[in-house]
Amino acid sequence: MGMTIDLFIQNFANQFDDTELDEFAPDTEYRELDEWDSLIGLAVLNMKDKKYGVKLNFTEMRGTETIQQLFDLVIAKQ
Q1: Which of 1, 14, 15, 53 fits a 20 to 30 Å CA distance from 43?
Q2: CA angle at 63 for the pair 49 and 30, rounded to the nearest 5°
């Protein structure tokens, strides 16, 4: 199953309750979003594991700033 950045963004955005989908783009610095917190961080880590079979830890995730960088990391780990 091919993974696209658009699908990844949709799955990523689904972890947020109050942030509109149009605020998410490949170059979005996700930790700058108002709603970002450690619980959403855990939800995103869980989503990557369940949807993509990729386990990341907080240290690896902290090495990324944008959704594109996170996507690239997930692709590299598959």
Answers
A1: 1
A2: 75
CB 5 within 8 A of CB 42: no
Look up tokens 């605020």; give the residue: 23
Q: Which residue type does 72 have? A: D
In this structure, are residues 29 and 66 in contact, taking their beta carbons and an 8 Å threshold? yes
Q: What whole-number distance in Å separates Cα of residue 34 and Cα of residue 50?
A: 25
Residue the block writes with tokens 């902290």: 62
- pLDDT tens digits, 10-46: 999 999 999 999 999 999 999 999 999 999 999 999 9
Residue 59: phi and psi, rounded to 5, are -65, -45
pTM: 0.93
